[in-house]
Design brief:
Elements lengths: L16 H6 L3 E7 L18 H9 L1 E3 L2 E2 L5 H10 L18 E2 L7 H6 L4 E6 L18 E4 L20 E4 L2 E5 L6 H15 L5 E6 L20 H23 L6 E7 L26 H4 L3 E4 L8 E3 L3 E2 L3 H9 L14 H4 L12 E5 L2 E7 L2 E4 L2 E6 L12 E6 L2 E4 L15 H18 L15 E2 L3
Helix pairs in contact: 5-6
Length: 466
């Protein structure tokens, strides 16, 4: 549960502190699944139209160097909702219908942080932090829930004949139906979010719109199927953009735009093996399931009229672990009572002059493997094995094959080489030394199975059964 002490001054200069004391801002957090860095117009997409997300960026802030903590489903969501590196709290990879673990009772979610400040809270979409009763979102700070407990490909129609039970669609704590018509999910999630906003217009609210797609299998409703210039995948992304537009229109209609902080991001990069059913990492290397930029760097835009200067571009590195402490500070909410890894990035978010990333280093784990460290404009990739496409990508919903490749130690200057093509370690031995020291500090705290280390700061996940 949250601690009782409030965070310090809301902002340097206190511009929003009096306002937050009267009514804190509403928060809308939209999280797409497997959307690539290059799939949004504001990030360079040409064949996919995303006018509503682009408008958030135009009227607010766009981060160019924003990251997820791990490029895979459950781990990514654990970091976003708890402000911690996911391996710290034992949430690794993607939880399955057979998994008996999930988010622990002792962890504080963003929803719980905001409930302590008097918010109404809801999640519509994908949860993926445990499907058993103790782990459901209604047990972790959310008042309302409609969505899937895990990924939408964990169902009997998996293209590689993996054996999964019927896919449940939950409403609250109960299964509403199984194997739902997935073409209706995106639209229904958006409608539920709008209805929740309308019901709670007189009090602060938090809506977590965690879209199931464009994670495969992809589906679009009749209204969007065939509309885009990038086939079914583009149709799906344009329908997600439309849901963002519905929420934005509701905020305008209700006079809540200036009282609402809206975020949009993706949980990781594109699942490249699915080819025409996957997105684009743009200029970035690799995709989902890797610690290269295409896996961990994602679109991130935010709008808060009157507080975030319109048209702001932030090139400082930040991560989803920073969302919880930043929101907590902005709304004057109690922080979690356990150590977290995220830091307040409100100076970046609000366009303060000279604002810099509060992180000396950002860590990129995959499972329990420490694979890379970023500090400033440099990223040190540590020796490991990583997936890469083995031959052509798949098509029509069937994946291509991956192989495991050896990745050597390399230093990349992301300011000059966003595609991670040229190792500059020999030219910057001081940077390599500094980032290796950061890696060693991380191993002491969080462990690293690549070097046989067990961290001292690890916490157990929740578990059911023996």
């Amino acid at each position: 549960m949250p601690a009782c002490l409030l965070l310090g001054p809301l902002l340097a200069g206190g511009a929003a502190s009096g306002w937050a004391a009267e009514r804190p801002p509403n928060v809308v957090l939209v999280y797409a699944d497997d959307l690539g860095y290059g799939d949004i117009g504001a990030y360079g997409a040409k064949a996919i139209r995303t006018p509503h997300i682009d408008r958030l960026a135009t009227e607010g802030v766009r981060f160019t160097d924003f990251y997820v903590a791990q490029a895979v489903c459950s781990a990514s969501r654990a970091a976003l909702l708890t402000g911690t590196y996911p391996n710290r709290i034992g949430i690794l990879g993607a939880l399955f219908p057979t998994s008996t673990n999930g988010i622990a009772d002792g962890e504080t979610t963003l929803a719980e942080v905001l409930k302590a400040r008097g918010y109404a809270t809801a999640i519509y979409g994908k949860w993926h932090l445990g499907h058993l009763p103790p782990f459901l979102p209604t047990r972790h700070g959310f008042d309302d829930y409609l969505g899937l407990p895990y990924s939408n490909d964990m169902w009997p129609s998996h293209p590689e004949r993996m054996q999964f039970p019927p896919l449940p669609l939950y409403s609250g704590d109960a299964v509403l139906t199984v194997n739902p018509d997935q073409a209706q999910l995106t639209g229904e999630y958006g409608r539920r979010a709008v209805a929740f906003i309308e019901r709670n217009r007189e009090r602060p609210f938090f809506v977590y719109l965690a879209h199931t797609m464009p994670h495969v299998p992809i589906f679009a409703s009749d209204r969007f199927r065939g509309r885009s210039r990038q086939g079914l995948y583009g149709d799906v992304v344009e329908e997600i953009d439309d849901s963002v537009g519905q929420v934005a229109a509701a905020l305008r209609r209700l006079g809540l735009e200036r009282e609402t902080l809206v975020f949009f991001a993706s949980d990781n990069g594109p699942w490249l093996s699915y080819g025409d059913h996957a997105g684009s990492a743009g200029p970035l290397r690799e995709g989902k399931g890797t610690a290269f930029e295409g896996g961990v760097r994602v679109p991130f835009v935010a709008r808060w009229p009157g507080r975030i200067p319109a048209g702001t571009i932030v090139r400082e590195p930040a991560m989803t672990i920073d969302v919880l402490p930043t929101i907590a500070r902005l709304v004057g909410a109690p922080p979690p009572d356990r150590p977290i890894d995220g830091l307040d990035i409100s100076p970046l978010l609000l366009g303060e002059a000279g604002a810099r990333s509060p992180h000396d280093a950002l860590l990129f784990y995959y499972g329990t493997e420490l694979r890379a460290v970023r500090g400033g404009r440099f990223k040190l990739v540590l020796p490991h094995r990583s997936q890469t496409l083995d031959g052509p990508a798949g098509s029509g919903g069937r994946p291509g094959k991956y192989r495991q490749a050896e990745v050597p130690l390399a230093l990349y200057d992301l300011g000059a080489d966003v595609g991670e093509t040229t190792d500059v370690a020999s030219a910057h031995p001081d940077v390599v030394k500094r980032l290796l020291e950061a890696a060693e500090k991380a191993r002491e705290d969080l462990g690293d199975s690549l070097t046989g280390r067990t961290g001292r700061g690890l916490r157990e996940p929740g578990r059911v059964g023996p």
